[in-house]
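Internal tracking record. Fields below are filled automatically when a chain is submitted to the structure queue. Please do not edit lines marked as system-generated. If the sequence contains nonstandard residues, flag them in the REMARKS field before resubmitting.
Queue: standard
Priority: normal
Entity type: single polypeptide chain
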Amino acid sequence: MVDRGQPDGGAYEWYQRGLQLLGDGNPDAAATLLERAIAAEPGSRSVLEALARAQYDAGRYRSAIDSFSRLIAVNPTDDYAQFGLGLAASRAGELELAAEHLALAVAMRPDLTHYARALRGVRTRRGLAEELP
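SYSTEM-GENERATED OUTPUT FOLLOWS
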């Protein structure tokens, strides 16, 4: 059903299409639709999380950092947002920020081995970077 108030759909339709594009391996297109959806529904955590994932997958790490940070600002105990922020910061070369948020994610969910593995990787990279002249 098309929302007649929007020329090409509404926030929910953009969200659904964005998730489908993300699942189909088209993160750039997904991010474009999800940016439209979050502009229409700025308080939607689901849309913001999907946007952050799309931005990360599209290699837009700074934007993903911003989106994951917005999620954390609302709910600091969101382990997935902490993890996503840590991964995005790592890819952006911000190893201190990455280590901080990955450590928080690990503390919240020590049962998730991929959280701990990501933290170890960042700590190793950070240690190597400190050894360089």
